[in-house]
Specification:
Number of strands: 22
Radius of gyration: 22 Å
Order of helices and strands: HEEEEEEEEEEEEEEEHEEEEEEE
Largest sheet: 5 strands, mixed
Number of domains: 3
């Protein structure tokens, strides 16, 4: 018996050394609550101690916060890990919310929400309370940062971060996560307006990028956020997407092509691979104006209601390879 108690104590101590309190919360304003209650399902349920395994639609109930429209739960889960989840108005998977594309994992057609737990601080990381089937909490906008570090000789062991005006330009507070291909990203919720930020390969000011003058506001990047915004992927310390040096000719042939560009009435995006692609088209503010799923050989993009100007085409394929192109519409 003594050995069993000792083992249990050791396991509990080890878990507490890596665990972090995370609060999942959702705003159900204007929505009738199902008689079976509110739930959250994700790949955190097993490590959080819920029965039935991960993505179980009925094991993890949310509790209403007083008489508000907010429903939530606090769980203990290991830090320094990415988790996927969805809210359910009920206890069956057909009760799950439809997650907007800006908030999705987005790779391999994964339509879950996601969070990266980046700290062991003695506090609670709050997720939300996002609007059910929405991108952000009421009164705020989603902003999704993406930076490509393929040109860096190494990635700091302390992680990749973004320092911003709304978190006092702290280079260690907001850590990004990589789904692959050296692209790091994170979702934040901000007020409308213009925000300054800078990417950091590490967690100190000396490891921050030097933003080129062509896209700098002082020493920072800037973005205007009038609504939910997914930024175009940029190369670390650059104004545009990365262009790998010394690409072999056969690799260059695989790069998607836009023609005509500049375009008047339409342009055709042609792929030279067998992958399936997801395509996002954003304007210079980072606002997504078009999105296309399950694209294979080529995609015809019509001008229609688009204003003349510069647009960025972000492409993600089923091999988790991302590409960005610039399109000029006349």
């Amino acid at each position: 018996m003594k050995k069993i108690i000792t083992l249990a104590f050791i396991l509990a101590t080890a878990f507490s050394a890596t665990a972090k309190k995370v609060k999942f919360a959702v705003d159900m304003t204007g929505i009738t609550i199902n008689s079976t209650g509110m739930h959250v399902a994700g790949d955190f349920q097993t490590v959080a101690g819920f029965s039935g395994g991960d993505f179980n639609s009925s094991s993890t109930s949310l509790t209403q916060e007083g008489i508000t429209d907010i429903w939530s739960i606090v769980v203990d889960i290991p830090a320094f890990a990415k988790y996927e989840y969805k809210f359910l108005n009920g206890d069956q998977f057909y009760d799950a919310e439809f997650v907007p594309v800006e908030s999705r994992v987005g790779y391999d057609f994964d339509d879950n929400r996601w969070i990266y737990v980046d700290s062991l601080a003695n506090d609670t990381t709050a997720v939300g309370a996002v609007l059910f089937a929405g991108n952000a909490p009421a009164g705020l906008n989603l902003i999704r940062y993406l930076v490509d570090l393929q040109t860096q000789s190494s990635i700091a062991s302390t992680g990749v971060h973004v320092s911003t005006d709304y978190q006092s330009y702290d280079p260690a507070k907001t850590r990004l996560y990589s789904f692959g291909s050296n692209i790091y990203e994170i979702i934040n919720y901000v007020t409308s307006g213009t925000h300054l930020f800078q990417y950091v390969n590490g967690n100190t000011g000396v490891s921050a990028e030097i933003v080129p003058a062509g896209c700098a506001t002082g020493t920072y990047r800037s973005v205007t956020v009038p609504h939910d915004t997914v930024l175009a992927t940029v190369c670390f310390a650059s104004c545009s997407a990365c262009v790998a040096a010394g690409i072999a000719e056969n690799e260059t042939a695989k790069t998607p092509q836009l023609f005509p560009n500049p375009a008047n009435e339409y342009t055709t995006l042609k792929f030279n691979s067998t992958s399936t692609h997801t395509v996002y088209m954003s304007d210079v503010t980072g606002r997504i104006v078009r999105s296309y799923n399950y694209v294979t050989d080529e995609l015809r993009i019509e001008k229609q209601d688009l204003n003349a100007g510069i647009y960025f085409i972000s492409i993600q394929n089923t091999d988790k390879i991302s590409t960005s192109l610039k399109l000029i519409i006349q």
